[in-house]
Each structure stands twice: as C-alpha cells, then as structure tokens.
Amino acid sequence: MQTRITKLLEIEYPVIQGGMAWVANAALAANVSKVGGIGFIGAANAPAEWVRSEIRRAKEITDKPIGVNVMLLSEHVDEVAQVVAEEGVKAVTTGAGNPAKYMKQWKEAGIRVIPVVASVAMARMMERAGADAIVAEGMESGGHIGEQTTMSLLPQVVDAVSVPVIGAGGIGDGRGMAAALMLGAEAVQLGTRFIVAKESTVSQAYKDRVIGAKDIDSVVTGRSTGHPVRSLRNTMTRQYLEMEKNNVSFEELEHLTLGALRKAVVDGDVAMGTVMAGQIAGMIKKEQTCAEIIQEIVQEAKETIKKCSIFAEDSCGNEAEHA
Ligand SMILES: Cc1cc2nc3c(=O)[nH]c(=O)nc-3n(C[C@H](O)[C@H](O)[C@H](O)COP(=O)(O)O)c2cc1C
C-alpha cells in the first residue's frame, strides 16, 4: 500500500492517528508509529515544555517517524513551533488557522507540513503557502469541525490541489479507508477509533462511552459561537444546547466548557466533561491494540478494494460482450 504519503512520511501503512487534545500523548502516538502508521501528539494548548517531553518520550518508545499536531490558536504556539523544529519530528499537522508564519522554520528543520482543512479554498491557500500534503477533514469527525462531509469534501480537495491528500472524518474501518482511497485520498487519518486503543491513556469511562455509543449519539455544540465541536451527548451538551437556544452570552457558554475535555479524558467525568468523538463511534465496539487496529483496517481495505475490482472486471466483460 505505497502512496505519495507513505513515501513522504517514510511509513509502512497510509494510516494516521490524528492529533487529539489531551488524548494523543506520547504513549498513543508512538505506539501507532511503532506498528507502521504514524501517530501525532496533540499539542493543543499545552506549554512547549510538555510538547518537548512528549516528543522525547515517544522517541524512547520507537525510532519510527513521529508527528505533532500544532494548534495555531494556542497561546504557546510560537514556543511550540520552535520546540517542534528543535526536536526534529517527521511531520506537523496544523489546525485552527494558517501555518504560513512557521513554514520556513519547519521546512528548514526538514519537517513535513500538513495543514488540516475543511474547505477547498483553505486547501488551495495551504498548497500555495508550501504545504507538503493536506488533511481534508469532514464534519463527521470528533472535535472541532467544519461544515462539509468527508464524502463531498475529499474528492473536491483532491481535484483542487496537486499535493497528496489525506482523508479524515468518519473513517473507522477498512471499508471507510477503501472509500477514501477511491475518492482520491492517499492516506486516512483516524481519531475516534484510536481513543479506545489499548495504549490510549484516556479514562475508562471515556472509552466506555465511545464503545457504547450508537450512530446518532454525537451532537454538535457551539454552532452559535462559530466554533462547532462534535462530542457525545451528555448532561453538559444538553445544558449547552439549551443555553444556545436561549441566546446566553459567549462568556457563559465558555464557562460551561472550560477545562471540560480534560474533565472527561483525565477525571472520567463523562456527564459534565466534553466527550469528543465522531459519528463513527457507533461502529467502534471494542478496545484493541494499535497493531490490531492498523492491521485490521489495512487488511479490510485491501479486501474491499479487491471486491470492487470484481465489479470493474464485470463491466469490462460486459462491454466486451456487447462489442
Ligand atoms: C478527542 C478528540 C480531540 C481532537 N483534537 C484535535 C486537535 O487538537 N487538533 C486537531 O487538528 N484535530 C483534533 N481532532 C481531530 C482528529 O485529529 C481527527 O482528524 C478526527 O478525529 C478524524 O475523524 P474521526 O473522529 O471521525 O476519526 C480531535 C478529535 C478527537 C476525537
């Protein structure tokens, strides 16, 4: 399964564990990389020294390529950008903004820069700014989302740019991976499925919510603020949505969710915490090791693609018969 992405990132399988605030630490990212994918440490709002120590911890677990997801709105972003360049990771994905300011610094450090986008316009802008690849993320995904679905966004981004594209959002198994490859992606990025990896250190209560979720159990809060977030329905989301309906102030909404992801991930408070997860949670039914997850996805994607090639042969045969 060699693509431009496996070559660019020097990995065995085109499977990426997306950066996830609080969730994607060294333990998760390194164990994904160790088994042939690539894991991204989620820097989110963390201080630069935390990012440095996680990169070093990851390098103790594996000598395979490691990535960092840099949140451009973080108050520590300048220092995090510097740390990432100093520590020499293979790739950086960026969310929430334009990484142009750091492009030269990262490129000089030999880092591949891969912005996450939710629109064709943003993908084009990122390519012009020097991106090595693009993650096109649909609104099925967990966490902060855009408005387009993966099914429609992905092929449009593929058509719009010449750098390789990674599909993300709503991909949870090999069928999803095969579909993304059909749409022109050269790798897939998964978040929700890796939350329940055995090596993931999130609270058991969080994992249990993901494993127990049904297809319709995620909701989007924050549409009124312009910062929509997908998470699993709970007491907090019900209160939040009610407050949005009643047009309460931005500050009150912020107050309700301040530190709420940490509350769910670290403290296991899945009633008042934010249990970020994507629509695909409904399909995720067990904890597995990163190795099992990656092997299963890749194997199933290959079988799915093989099945589809039978359809292609059929139609060729028919055409030959008709001719
Ligand atoms: C708990 C959680 C936290 C996330 N945090 C971030 C983040 O800090 N930065 C980012 O770019 N994407 C973040 N994402 C998005 C993931 O990197 C990934 O693109 C997404 O989860 C893919 O869709 P899926 O959840 O349907 O697999 C987060 C997703 C989840 C579920």
UniProtKB/TrEMBL annotation:
Keyword Repressor: no
Organism: Lachnospira intestinalis
Keyword Magnesium: no
Superkingdom of origin: Bacteria
Function: Nitronate monooxygenase that uses molecular oxygen to catalyze the oxidative denitrification of alkyl nitronates. Acts on propionate 3-nitronate (P3N), the presumed physiological substrate. Probably functions in the detoxification of P3N, a metabolic poison produced by plants and fungi as a defense mechanism.
Keywords annotated in UniProt: Flavoprotein, FMN, Oxidoreductase
InterPro entries listed in its UniProt record: Aldolase_TIM, Enoyl_ACP_red-II_put, NMO
Protein's name in the database: Probable nitronate monooxygenase
Organism placement in taxonomy: Bacteria, Bacillati, Bacillota, Clostridia, Lachnospirales
Classification via Pfam families: NMO
